[in-house]
Amino acid sequence: MRNIWKKSINFIYDLIFNARDLQIEEEFWNNFIETKIKKIKETGISDLNNPNKQRYYKKLLIQTKNLLGIKSLKGYKILEIGSGSGLLSLYMAREGADAALLDISKNSLIYSSLMYKQLKKVDEFLGKVRFLHCNLFLLKNSLLSNFDIVHNSGVIEHYSFKEGVEIAKIMKSLVKPDGYIIIAVPNYFSPHLISIWKKHKKGTEKYYSKKELKKILEKAGLRFVKIETSTFVYPEEFPRFIIRKCQRLENFLGKYLNLGFLYIGVGKKTD
To answer: Tens of pLDDT along 33-48?
Structure first.
């Protein structure tokens, strides 16, 4: 019954938002990132200048620390797999984390490194940042390990459930005992996600429920698994003054009415 429900949701969303196939998806993201690189080089404008992006990553950083039960990331060793823009990890490094950003896309790493240089010009950086070009599946039995936190967002949903478990196991192998794995997937019922797909079309994402995300973390051998919906809800086109005045409402809509942009899963390595 669960598989029928999942297949139905994927079919309906693919149809409504005119989903791209894998080849077109790769071309889209390559062009998308290349445009961002060109823009930051020519004008200095990047995601750091986008108030909506700033608000999203700052809220995500706060919620991540709350899930982990920590007040500061100073001194933590962090690895982001499939880092994309890498902004969350850059904000973590600004707080004092030693962050490594890993992606198979060279362009993504170029873009995040350019933003890193921008951030360092205006903010004091307490931590360090390094950039790693690698396929995440090649990290199996890797010497790259001993991290306190390994995280990703926007990765698992492009893979099958079985592959998702394998990715979580790879992530687990990279953290030290008592380290944490954080995996976030998009919430198909989020107004913000729907507004993005309405504007840019849907990609190759697959639907994952909270229960499935929890099962992925548990099957990877993680303990004390917690799943939350993120507190970022409002679509990009919402007027900024409404967003500023309705922060508490957004937090409630996201976390308790399940309308937030992401499902965030946290698990602890205990072996």
So the answer is: 999 999 999 999 999 9
